[in-house]
Amino acid sequence: MPGIALATDRREQFVDVTEAVAAAVAELGVTDGAVLLHVPHTTAAVTINEGFDPDVAADVVDVLARLVPRDDGYAHLEGNSDSHVKSIMVGCSQLLGVAGGTPVLGRWQRIFFCEFDGPRQRQLLVLRV
Amino acid sequence: MPGIALATDRREQFVDVTEAVAAAVAELGVTDGAVLLHVPHTTAAVTINEGFDPDVAADVVDVLARLVPRDDGYAHLEGNSDSHVKSIMVGCSQLLGVAGGTPVLGRWQRIFFCEFDGPRQRQLLVLRV
Amino acid sequence: MPGIALATDRREQFVDVTEAVAAAVAELGVTDGAVLLHVPHTTAAVTINEGFDPDVAADVVDVLARLVPRDDGYAHLEGNSDSHVKSIMVGCSQLLGVAGGTPVLGRWQRIFFCEFDGPRQRQLLVLRV
């Protein structure tokens, strides 16, 4: 499957993958339309948001950690129920428009791989639709 | 509209529809690309997450119920404002990659219809894009 | 980029854009398949939910404001970290099925532009996939 391999280095972390996604789009040869970004994991996600100030991603990680505490009497015993919930709240896929061979993004938008149970080796699939 | 009919039996419940979606994809004859999974309801959702341990889905249902209580002085008087909020937080659609006639899913990923105001008769549309 | 321009008039607000999206789909000439609704901003979102009773959208805005308070010791100093978090939780894009030239929506479903840091001039892109 075409995509991006990455290694995260913290338990919870947003990794800016905008340039890697743009390269994958070029490699796929998609010039106009859209590509599907799909995270094939159940404790990670993908989103698009501001990347200029890294404090934004840090705030998002903090808010999610407050909303969904790591330990909260969960039934699932692997200690990562919070990670699954965050993955569902943020979402494991993102459809990205492509125009003129380039991802369609607003001025401040960047694409983030969202790690919620790292550090790990991860993948982000980039698929033609 | 092509899709899947299902009956939920609790107010809040994740129903694993992976096999039914795979059958719908085969029936549509999509071999490579993607299909759109669309929930045509406003108090339900669709997501992709872990299906091996049913405790994961149970934990997600519990966390969402804690974050968005059923009774909380809502303006909408039908008693299901929480269901609408959860539907929006999880999302009413999911684009699913297809390769070789088979849904593109990670090793632990399963597709779930998310009921937030059951029990009811429900539909999940499976559409060509 | 084809799309819809709109002006919001409150900080947090759901604006029903269903008719404008239907017009944009017709203008694009998409008859069957799907269009991508993409919000090119980082403090807004797009969703599909009930539009019959305006209290539903009001409840959603209130619940999100309670879950993600406006002031909560954030690192990002522009005073809109809450807006970024809500944008990520709701999502900045939505794939919308189209059949017979018309958006595929359930009986009670309407499309909402979600403002989380207004009032502002905003755009909702409507893209072929």
What's the SSE pattern of chain A? EEHEEHHEEEE
Strand arrangement, largest sheet of chain A?
A: 1-8-3-5-6
State the end-to-end CA separation of chain A: 13 Å
**Known CATH architecture of chain A:** Sandwich
- CATH topology name of chain A, in short, is Jelly Rolls
Structural class of chain A: alpha+beta
Please identify the oligomeric state. Answer: homotrimer
Average of pLDDT of chain A: 96
| Superfamily (CATH H level) name of chain A | YjbQ-like
Q: Total domains of chain A, how many?
A: 1
Q: Please estimate the helix content of chain A.
A: 25-40%
Q: Please tell me how large the radius of gyration of chain A is.
A: 15 Å
- Put simply, the count of helices of chain A is 3
Q: What's the total count of β strands of chain A?
A: 8
Considering residues with a beta carbon less than 8 A from a beta carbon on another chain, report the largest interface and each chain's count. Answer: A-B, 30 and 31 residues
How large is the share of residues in beta strands of chain A?
A: 35-45%
The CATH C-level name of chain A is Mainly Beta
Poorly predicted runs of chain A are none
Estimate the global geometry of chain A from the Cα principal axes.
globular
Largest sheet of chain A: 5 strands, antiparallel
